[in-house]
């Protein structure tokens, strides 16, 4: 039975990845910042071994990798918000960049010691490309980050390449935005779906948003967790763009969400507040996932409308106290 070690196991993607790996017979261990606060899907809690560590203190990662002796390491822990990375640029580097160097080195040392392959998959990001010089972006689009988040992910991405050259099975999945009912409300998509559900039920008056024009390549988070798993079991390590290849605007997201809750005049309840806009916002991110489709056999299973509808339906059920598990 292969053992997987997941950092960021309690986050959106970690929660889907752990479900997928357990269903395939993996033994799963995870790193969480706090054992008491760790929030894993109920159906997985009994089957997962958790280790408490702040990955900003990389030495503890080395100890955990040595103890667990994983076959596969998935590095998902991160300051995952570009907005927050502007508020805490140094901490973002401590969490999103340096621990990756430690994990790679620990994986390499473990592999040397025990004489079997240790595979590592890094959750990289389209924010690597920042103000992208071409569209759609591929694995060879120049790296040109425009935020502390993107710069820290760029360092991590390069280190994965360095250790791959050294002989470690290390892959980087360049993830475009992906959403689900497990996305926190600090992210615009969930803010919209939760807001629409509450407004429709008289629990909130208005929704304040930044620019409605920003366009994103939005996918379904469980599909993206699946891409990470596929990358770990591929024949060869590589970089893979994981994206739907389609963009939609925030306005289209708002229109679909309010339509789903039965409000046709969304303009009457949505205000545009520029303080929610990001300091530097790449104009259009859209990924070409041809390599992942061909090599990993990966493809998205939900389209834009289905993603918005699933999130809204979840939030309507939450408002009505139905305790829906997304
Ligand atoms: P998420 O929900 O924010 O989860 C991040 C996880 O990292 C959480 O479990 C968090 O634990 C953990 N973490 C943060 N700082 C930590 C620290 N110092 N020590 C230990 N754990 C720490 O993010 P996600 O949406 O699942 O994303 C997963 C990965 O994909 C991230 O690396 C993200 O940057 C990348 N990515 C995501 C997207 C997307 O659209 N979702 C797009 C591109 C790339 P706490 O709960 O304790 O904070």
The share of residues in extended strands comes to 15-25%
Order of helices and strands: EHEEHEHHHEHEEHEEEHEEHEHH
What is the CATH fold-level name of the largest domain?
Rossmann fold
CATH superfamily of the largest domain: NAD(P)-binding Rossmann-like Domain
Spell out which ligands are present.
NADP nicotinamide-adenine-dinucleotide phosphate
User: Could you give the distance between the termini?
Assistant: 28 Å
- Global geometry: globular
Number of helices: 11
How would you characterize the overall build of this protein?
This protein is 40% helix and 16% strand. The chain has 326 residues and is of the alpha/beta class. The protein has two domains: 3-179 and 219-242, Rossmann fold; 188-216 and 247-282 and 304-319, UDP-galactose 4-epimerase, domain 1, CATH 3.90.25. It has a seven-stranded parallel beta sheet with strand order 3-2-1-4-5-6-11, with helices on both faces. It has a two-stranded parallel sheet with strand order 7-10. Strands 8-13 form a two-stranded parallel ribbon. Helix 2 (59-68) packs parallel to helix 5 (98-114). The mean pLDDT is 94. Bound molecules: NADP nicotinamide-adenine-dinucleotide phosphate. Residues 8, 10-14, 31, 33, 54-56, 76-78, 80, 95, 123, 125, 175, 177-178 line the site of NADP nicotinamide-adenine-dinucleotide phosphate (NAP).
């Amino acid at each position: 039975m292969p053992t997987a070690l997941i950092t960021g196991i309690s986050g959106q993607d970690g929660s889907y990845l752990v479900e997928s790996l357990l269903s395939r017979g993996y033994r799963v261990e995870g790193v969480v910042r706090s054992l008491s606060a760790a929030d894993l899907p109920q159906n997985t809690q009994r089957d997962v071994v958790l280790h408490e560590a702040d990955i900003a203190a990389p030495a503890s990662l080395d100890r955990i990798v040595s103890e667990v002796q994983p076959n596969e390491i998935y590095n998902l822990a991160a300051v995952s918000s570009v907005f927050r990375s502007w508020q805490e640029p140094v901490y973002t580097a401590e969490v999103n960049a340096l621990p990756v160097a430690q994990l790679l080195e620990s994986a390499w040392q473990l592999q040397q010691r025990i004489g079997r392959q240790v595979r590592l998959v890094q959750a990289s990001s389209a924010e690597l490309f920042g103000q992208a010089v071409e569209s759609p972006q591929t694995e060879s689009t120049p790296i040109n980050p425009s935020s502390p988040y993107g710069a820290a992910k760029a360092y991590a991405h390069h280190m994965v390449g360095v250790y791959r050259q050294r002989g470690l099975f290390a892959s980087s999945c360049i993830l475009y935005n992906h959403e689900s009912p497990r996305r926190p409300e600090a992210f615009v998509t969930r803010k919209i779906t939760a807001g629409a559900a509450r407004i429709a039920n008289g629990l909130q008056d208005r929704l304040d948003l930044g620019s409605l024009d920003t366009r994103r390549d939005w996918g379904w988070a469980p599909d993206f967790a699946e891409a990470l798993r596929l990358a770990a079991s591929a024949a060869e390590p590589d970089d893979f763009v994981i994206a739907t290849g389609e963009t939609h605007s925030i306005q289209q997201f708002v229109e679909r969400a309010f339509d789903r809750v039965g409000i046709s005049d969304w303009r009457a309840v949505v205000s545009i507040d520029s303080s929610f806009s990001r300091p530097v916002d790449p104009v259009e991110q859209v990924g070409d996932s041809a390599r992942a489709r061909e090599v990993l056999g990966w493809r998205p299973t939900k389209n834009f409308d289905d993603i918005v509808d699933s999130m809204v339906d979840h939030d309507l059920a939450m408002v009505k106290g139905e305790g829906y598990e997304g």
